[in-house]
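Take the subject:
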Amino acid sequence: MTSTVAGATAPADLSTRDRVTQLLLERGATTAAQLGSALGLSPAAIRRHLDAMLADGDVVAREQTVRGSRGRGRPAKVFVLTEAARVRCGTHHYDNMATAALRWIARTGGAEAVAAFAADQVAALEHRCRAAMEDAGDAPLARAEALAGALTAEGYAANASTIASGGQLCQHHCPVAHVAAEFPQLCEAETAVISRLVGTHVQRLATIAHGDGVCTTHIPAQSGSTVTTVRTDR
């Protein structure tokens, strides 16, 4: 049995592989067990797909990052889409001219000029998101949920969730990840925007540009603060 994808005849299990790719795109680093559970596949079946994707260079395997104390034994392996796979998914639409332009700005104006350029670039995004959050109220976590919706409308595939230490904003797409890998000022400017829009200080814990599967921003469980302390992992 075959199915047609993008006008070509392909094996039927390509649809399952596409579902694996979509889950990795949405969730970032994910274990084989989590993927199998979400897709209703046996360990052997999910391993077969992951092995094929590893062989094709679509995913890489790494040890799971565990923050804080962890139990005995080695951390579970997690799988992450490679940059080449993300490009094919349409998650990066960047131009080499952007990198060349930023290098020129850095040479002629220094790091401060790059930071000013980055702030100017996200100003319009901040304006649009602020307008979309008018009815979100003042609570940081409620504002984070509204911001996630606004960012999703901008193509960032964002979501917000509540965790024990506050809230978490995740962005599964980054249109400038390739450029931001060289110029972290882009991430810093975006994080500052998130802080101002949410209305409290935030911490950027992970970024796609830094090699993580998802851009993750932590929102501490405290209200009333308008400090804009920004930490971007490099």
Observations:
- Helices lie at 14-27, 32-39, 43-55, 83-88, 96-132, 140-153, 177-180, 185-198.
- The first strand starts at residue 2 and ends at 5.
- The chain is about 45% helix and 20% strand.
- Confidence is low (pLDDT under 50) at residues 1-13, 223-234.
